[in-house]
Amino acid sequence: MVHLSRRTVLATAAASGASVLLASHSATAHAAPAAAGEAAPAADLTGHDPVTLRWLEGGTPAELAAGTTWGVPWPRGAFAPDQEFSLTSDSGTPVPVQTWPTGWWPDGSVKWTAHAVADAAPRGETYRLEAGSPKSPEKPVRVTSDSGTVVVDTGVVQVTFGKSGNDLIKSIRRGGTEIATSGRLIASRQDGASGESATVRSETFTSTVKAVHVEQDGPVRAVVRVEGKHRKGLRSWLPYTVRFYLYAGSDAIRVVHTFVFDGNEQKDFVNGLGVRFSVPMRGELYNRHVRFAGDGKGVLAEAVQGITGLRRDPGAAVRTAQYEGRTTPDAASWDTRVTSRLQWIPAWGDYRLSQLNAHGFEIHKRTKEGHSWIRADGGRRAEGLAYAGSPTGGLAFGMRNFWQLHPTELEITGAASDTATATVWMWSPRAGAMDLRFYHDGMGEDTYDKQLDALEITYEDYEPGFGSPYGVARTTELTFWALEATPTAERFAALAAANATPPLIVSSPEHLHSAGVFGSWSPVDRSTAARKTIEDRLQQMHTYHREQVDQRSWYGFWDYGDIMHTYDGTRHTWCYDVGGYAWDNSELSTDMWLWYHYLRTGDADAFRFVEAMSRHTSEVDVYHLGKYAGLGTRHGVMHWGDSAKQVRISNAAYRRFHYFLTADERIGDVLHDLVDCDRTFLVLDPGRKIREGAYEPDPKALGISTTTDWGALAMAWLAEWERNGDPIARTKLLNSATTIAALPNGWAQGGDIRYNLADGTYTGPTEKSVSVGALSSVFGLIEVMTELIGLVGLPEVKAKWTEFCRLYNGTKADQIAATGSSWGSLNLGQAYARATAYAAKQLDDSTLAARAVTELRKGAAGYPDSLSFATKRYEGPAVLNPVDEAPLSTNASAQYGLAAIQCLALVGDAIG
Description:
Residues 50-131 form the PcRGLX/YetA-like N-terminal RIFT barrel domain. This is Tat pathway signal sequence domain protein. Residues 502-910 form the PcRGLX/YetA-like C-terminal alpha/alpha toroid domain. With 912 residues, the protein is of the alpha+beta class. The chain has 19 helices and 36 strands. It has a domain at 142-279. Strand 13 (202-217) and strand 14 (221-232) form a beta hairpin. Helix 6 (529-551) packs antiparallel against helix 18 (890-906). The protein is globular, with a radius of gyration of 29 Å.
């Protein structure tokens, strides 16, 4: 069973095309047409040739993180949503696969399908996906439910989820062996910042389960979603959503953990956040094993009671068996000088690997509580996997992006007792507590005038009380393996690699492009000298920004995934401490540029770079609870610190790629939650610092801009519509587009324009006036309009939008002739080269195409052709660490990237 939406799906929502009723307006208002376009015809299904798939990193992975799930697009009219698909490995072996639709074209044909395979399935370097009946798994996933539990049986392990209480997972069994019990979340807080007070009180909270939902029940993949809060006594806080993914024939559980901060940053300092299991320990102490993955393929392999390196030797066979994790030979065969003295050999029951920064980890161990920890070893960047168990079974447990998301820790306690405790610390108790307080005291900015003046120097839009972290979130991915025995060092290293970088199946840039998804782009093309020059610049620019992450150590629990906004050439560093020039927070569509770069190249490094950004910006830079829910925060020193809370940052345009390429349910949640973000304009006045008089929002006449704001809203509605969700999304999308186009100057119209929250319609002046800003189209408006018009046609909308694109970089004379006014001195000329290119394509105008290429090459407010992207190396003592420096800024890179990519796709012939 596949649950496609949390809201009721109307059967006609995906197939009814573009027809939509528009609300009537008073006689004094601008009259709207009765329909937004002609209804789309029923799909004429044509089918599609088989598609070749490969692993993102290439080759054939040794292990998977339980399984893998990926998305594949299809051209309009190719398949019905209920089409079955078969999967075959490159050896010709049928592979069990589970398929479900995740997106639809307006004619009702399937646009995107998601597919899942298990780690137990046959693997190859490539696969063939085609229409046909799928092979059934030998051990299909089975889900059963009663009043108190949900049980998922993969055919190898049986996992019991509790519907109430503290344990998300009650038990994990493998055959007749209980591998783990009492899987729960833990969080601790202290009432003051670390180091600021001698008397800091701390308390620990445990998860309470509120609801359990089975989102999929096989046959290849089952998904169980658990929701709740952390609780101690009367206080419940830190709401969580945890999804568990189980695959047929697999002994692994993939986990996606999301929590939302809903505390008071002045007194709630989280000093520990983790996932914990109890692990039954069996056998003699010397037959109990602990494993930690280190840097690369490194493995620390130890026993709870070591019998190697002693003054007396138990024998080579005994030593080797313990070191390799096998059951030792019968003790009767040992040297009696050892067996008679086993009681004098310490049992090391507690271990922990702490990664408190991105550049080093330490492993410590002790015999038991109340005694000293000793250092076992250390290294640079741990892969993030540990194991506790014996040759009769045990639990491997780990966290993805372990060192990148520091301070983290893997902890085993009580391994010398009957039951050990295994904890993945997403925030290590060994680190200082989270300090989410704003970074300055306001500096006297207690009026709007002062705040606007301060904006002129630090570019920070500060306002008291607006730097709150209440409602921001973080998502972490984990993997657990219920192993039948202590793994070999080789297998443990392979599991660690799968945990750190879960293998993903992907389709080629050529197939993605042929399906007609994501608007105007094309695969990399270096067939001519002129194209090669642009392609080389795009690659050089992308590589520079990606490598800056490691050079500048942009890592950490709240930071990993984002990059910086502006560079300070004097200090040879990014402006990490300068107001609005610090963290980028999706400004000017950085996420979108990076996703298009991956689509074109299919490069694994490009995917992992933007995947991390998408995960970060959709959680940390966006509010999920509270009065700002649905809004993102403008760029700044702290991700949530700036007072500009905007839909242009929570923008669905930046997350949608991630969802369709991976079918990630958490990203689906984020997209769905944006459907009603137009309601935020009832709560927060975006123009409060320049408004005269009180803000009295009218739901029938809100002041929502038709460009920057509407572009973000439109993409949220488009994403929901194509995912077959709430029908109001389609209604608002088409109503708003057609009523904006009906304004005298469309998207360039000035004056008092109002938005109706109920149905998405706009009304405004009947006389022409102009109001155009440089930022109007650089937060996804160009891209959403390209897709919308391609989906539903709408001739009036297409004509008005094409006019806007033609005129933005046009002459004043052309602007006056079309709209009655000059558009003034506009910025970002290079960024809008793609608007010119769009108009050239729609109008089949070679003169406009040549103009677009000229605009791209001149580089107004961007990168002219004369600018070299070459880097210069700086080393100590000029800088703290060796770094490469280039004359690039993130805003300009994002917009140059998008402009160049779309110009190559739209007016490539004019480029040469």
